[in-house]
Amino acid sequence: MANRQITRRILIGAVITAILLCFFLVRPQDSPNPAIRSSSQVAIPEPAALTNNDVTKGEVVMPKLGNETAKAELGRATWKYFHTMLARYPEEPTTEQQEILRSFIYLFARLYPCGECASHFQGHLTKYPPQVSSRNIASGWGCFIHNEVNAMLKKPEFDCNKIGDFYDCGCAEDEKSDDKKQELQSQNQDPSPE
């Protein structure tokens, strides 16, 4: 009878061991539902080791935009945004600010929602790289590149001397505010000697 109990305990222990081994060692290789996959089964892509040049000078991302009305509306809104951004750019930008604007313009050309337009814009950037050393230079370059696009589209050339009138950056209010601050600061300083 003691032999039977020992045999029975060994058999139960073996079954439990086999179940535990199956549970811990034999798992499905790829569950069809990502929500129930364990972290060891989820393929985590390696981060891309791209240089700044790879990111900014790659191929366009978006497909062709076939709707001509949407393309025209997008173009008008984009030029408004583009010229306003350049008009608000610092007059004396830091090296970092210059690189940010340069990179933005190249990334903008890759991500523009009209792939065909983006490709054309990239061609213009290859021929005429962004000029970002000051507000005036960046704004002038922006107007020049806009006229390059207009010439390609057989549209009239824009008078770059009127860019500030046509694309109002809202800077006048900022300038008034800055003038008032300077005036208040000069009034608060007491020039009288002690």
UniProtKB/TrEMBL annotation:
Reactions mediated catalytically: 2 R'C(R)SH + O2 = R'C(R)S-S(R)CR' + H2O2
EC main group: oxidoreductase
A Pfam match: Evr1_Alr
The ERV/ALR sulfhydryl oxidase domain, residue ranges: 67-167
Enzyme Commission number(s) from the entry: 1.8.3.2
Cofactor(s) needed for function: FAD
An example Gene Ontology molecular-function term: flavin-dependent sulfhydryl oxidase activity
Any one Gene Ontology cellular component term annotated for this protein: mitochondrion
Entry-linked Gene3D superfamilies: ERV/ALR sulfhydryl oxidase domain (1.20.120.310)
Annotated protein name in UniProt: Sulfhydryl oxidase
Species per Swiss-Prot/TrEMBL record: Aspergillus steynii IBT 23096
